[in-house]
Every structure is written in C-alpha cells, then in structure tokens.
Design goal:
single chain, alpha/beta
C-alpha cells in the first residue's frame, strides 16, 4: 500500500495486527510443544478429491442408447474409468477423482458434493473477497496445508467454464498457481487441456483475464485494504471501541464475506423463481425441467452484466418443420427437458434450460434439427427485485456514511489526545 494512501485508521489496523501476532505467537509455541503430534492437522490430498456418482437418467447417451449423442466425459477421463453399458453409466474403481467428467458433462450426470459448481464458486468467492489475490491450484502443486487465499482442487480442470465466467464477472483477482512442468508429469493427463479451454472461453465471455503464477515465492498473502478496514471497524464496535484486543477481528470480516456469498446464493434462487414464473417449471407433459447448476451460474453472471450476452455465442437447436415427423425422439434425448413436442406436434424449446449438448440433433432420424450458433440474449432473466435492492442499498450507503462520519470524529479525538500526550512528554 502506498504511503500516501494510508491514514490514521490504517496505522491503528497495523497496531492491532502487530499486537495480535505477538499475543498469539506464544500460544502457537505452547501448542507446538504440548499438542499430540498425531492430532496436528496435516496436508492430505484425499481431503480435496471426490469420486463422482453417476446419474444415468441424466446421461443423454444412456437415455438414447446412442454413444454418439455425447462422449465428453469419456474423452476427458484420464483413466478410462467411465463406461456406458446400455442405459447404465458407471464410474470404475480406476477413477482418479479429478472431477473432469463432472466439469464437462452438459447435463451434470455426475454428482459431486464438495467440488460441485456452487461449492467451488463459494470457496473461491470467499478467498477473492478477502484477499488482494486468490490462487486456484491443484493437490499436486503444494505439499502443505493451503493458505487462506489458496483454493485447492483435485485438478484445476474441475472448474467449469460457467463457474469461471460467473467468478470473473465479480472477481478480477483470480490466478492459477501451477509450477512449471507439473501438468506434464501429472497422471491426470487431460487436465491441462480441459482447464485451458474452460478459462479461455470464460475470459472471452467476461472480457476479464485469469493470472498465472509458477513460483510459490511470488504468491501474495495481503488482505484487501477495504476488507481489513471493515473488519477493524466491526471489531472495534463489538469490543466497545477497544483499539487493541486479543479478540480475532477476522470474525467480523468473515461475516462480511459470508454475507456476500449468501447474497449470490439468494440471487441464483430468485433467478430460478423468476424464470419459472416466466416459462413454467414444467413442460406440457407436466415433467419438471432441469436448470443445471452450471446454467444457473452462467445466467447469474448475465443477470448482473446483461451486455455480456452479446459476447456469448452458444449452439441452440433449430427445427425444420417440413422435415419433422413429430416422432418425439428429440424430446426423449433431452434429459433436462428443455425441448419437447407439444400436443399439436410443434417442437418447443426453452433456451434458458437448453445446455447446448446437441443430443436432440443426433437423435433426430430425419435430420430435422440442426445446432445453430446464437447469442445468449435469451439467457438474460430480468431482475424483478433490482429496484427494491437499489433502494435498500441506498439506505445502507447512507447509514454507512453516517457511521464513517461518527468514526472520523472519534479518530480525530484520538489524534488530538495523542498530540496532547506528545506535547506533555516534551
């Protein structure tokens, strides 16, 4: 931080940080000498890896019994651990738990919990909110417990392009940390290609870029200035204006980070409700449509920045009504139920639910469906509560400004007391 940008509040923050560091150093030494070595936390790569659970009902190749409908998971699996026997999708014991299959499957036929799109978004958002730089890395890049601004994945390729996009919309401080040559020696041989493609697409869609670090010595650990100031003010308020305290002020900052993550989750929930009110949650056969988690993240980014839709082009199905025989094979192939044939024989498509997999075109025996590239304008869902949130935000800003003025008066008083103390010493 440049000296000219610092103020008295920054000096107080540094004072408190130094005091906390000194106070906790003794506790850490005592813990090291008295703790049972077997109970001390150790870095275990298995903690960050997870075997996916296949859901055959969402697999378009399984449902259509046509391996050509989609083979993305098999193409990226570095261990050939994915098999399709008729309608049954399986993950064999040779699985390396890299998460690539889940990242590339358009219908999300592979279920994972701790490394799912939403869970990974939340982990990265927490780190990117609090720190100047956030580093996304893999289990093989470090051999220690990660720092707070490091997010460890089984493979960087486990992060889908949609997750990258939504993150880049709000967090321009994302970096990939991978030492040189690491991917060349990795058993997850397809991982580098997968994450390179995902990042390239997300960067094109968002207009932002992801940093790349190869040397651990170059990694930064600095918290954001606004984050430190907010957690200091919060801790000072909670402590009854005590300026130096052994209480951990990060708790207040963590609450602010959690609020931001919850706000994103609430936005996605409201987005889905708005979409369902607009087009319905079920098709004409009363079967529920599936809005994948990756599609929710893509649409969440577009809802915040609708102009970006003009930069995103995706393949959507187009139907030649003269060639269509209304056999319904296309609707059977659409496991997310974005496409259907209604009672009058028309083929209906809801672009927001369509995952652009192309299975319907493969399934059509007449070749009546083609995949045509179009902009993502139809994925922009109007925010019904934008005005209400804007008014609430205005009230919060006003209250915040009032709080700043009150705090400034208190700081002025502290400065004057400090000046009087120095004068008395003289």
């Amino acid at each position: 931080m440049a000296a000219k940008n610092r103020d008295f509040l920054d000096e107080l923050i540094d004072l408190q940080a130094d005091w906390n560091a000194l106070s906790h150093k003794g506790d850490e030494l005592v813990e090291q000498f008295t703790a049972d070595p077997s109970e001390l936390p150790e870095y275990d790569p298995d903690d960050y890896m997870e075997r996916p659970r296949p859901n055959s009902t969402l697999c378009v190749s399984g449902v259509t019994r046509n391996p050509e409908a989609c083979n993305r998971c098999m193409a990226v699996c570095p261990a050939d651990a994915i098999t399709l026997n008729g309608a049954s999708l399986r993950v064999d014991d040779t699985c390396r738990r890299c998460g690539l299959c889940a990242a590339v499957c358009p219908t999300e036929a592979f279920q994972i919990r701790k490394n799912g799109p939403m869970a990974l978004y939340d982990k990265i958002a927490r780190s990117a909110t609090a720190y100047e730089q956030c580093y996304i890395t893999c289990v093989h890049a470090i051999d220690r417990l990660p720092e707070p601004n490091e997010v460890v994945l089984p493979c960087v390729g486990a992060l889908s392009r949609e997750t990258w996009f939504d993150l880049l919309c709000d967090y321009p401080n994302l970096n990939v940390y991978l030492p040189l040559g690491l991917c060349d020696e990795c058993k997850v041989s397809t991982g580098e290609e997968v994450f390179s493609d995902a990042i390239a697409v997300a960067e094109e869609w968002s207009g932002e870029s992801v940093g790349y670090e190869v040397d651990e010595a170059d990694l930064e650990r600095e918290q954001k200035r606004a984050y430190k100031r907010s957690q200091f003010v919060s801790s000072m308020t909670q402590a009854g204006t005590r300026l130096v305290s052994r209480a951990n002020p990060a708790l207040a900052g963590a609450q602010a980070v959690a609020n931001r993550v919850r706000a994103h989750s609430a936005q996605i929930t409201e987005l889905q409700k708005t979409l369902e009110r607009a087009v319905g949650s079920q098709n004409t056969q009363s079967r529920r449509r599936v809005l994948t988690r990756n599609r929710r993240l893509l649409m969440a980014g577009l809802q915040k920045y609708p102009d970006l839709a003009d930069e995103i082009y995706l393949p959507f199905p187009q139907v030649d009504a003269q060639m269509c025989t209304m056999c319904g094979d296309c609707a059977k192939a659409c496991t997310v139920r974005a496409l259907e044939v209604d009672k009058t024989g028309r083929v209906l498509i809801e672009p927001a639910y369509c995952v652009n997999c192309g299975a319907c075109a493969v399934a059509c025996p007449e070749g009546a469906i083609t995949m045509a590239v179009a902009s993502a304008d139809d994925l922009v869902v109007p925010d019904e509560k934008a005005e209400e949130r804007a008014r609430k935000r205005a009230r919060e800003i006003k209250a915040k400004e009032q709080g700043k003025k009150t705090l400034a008066k208190g700081l002025d008083l502290l400065e004057s007391l400090a000046d009087d103390y120095e004068t008395d010493d003289d």
